[in-house]
Amino acid sequence: MSTTSLTEERPVRFLTDRMLGTLTRYLRFMGFDVLSANSLRPGDRREDTTLLGIARHGRRILLTRDRELARRGANHAVLVESEDVLEQVRQLVNAGLIDPDIRLRMKRCSLCNACLRRASEEEIRKTDYAPQQRNDLEFFWCPRCRKLYWMGSHGRNLAERLEEVRSLVEQD
Q: What is the pTM for the complete model shown?
């Protein structure tokens, strides 16, 4: 299934404030295009205004834990209620912003948001943290960060956590 909202044909794109770093990474692992305020210069007193402008002009939904920022963003912003990342994902599903068929998709870099591609044998070989046992593993490469991804134990744990959320959403 594509990473589209339940009401739109075009993919949903998000922008997150500095308080939602873990949610940012989860959404990226789920295949969503997510810009983060953490990529902006820190200490800018007008950062909230900048975020609102990016959301409006970039056709992104601003996700924030800041009530005032969410209020100012009106229909371009969503107040994320919980501090727990799985509850945050659940809120987005229940709000119809992401499809309830949430899965790990390995399409975006969790660090920089760039699109991942299949890793070449040379990229895998040259990465010192790549697993020695590569049986049945699929590898992905971030051309911007030069980071290697694969579905190892960390990915399986994340997939299991997302499955828990999907089960809870089905009960809602």
A: 0.88
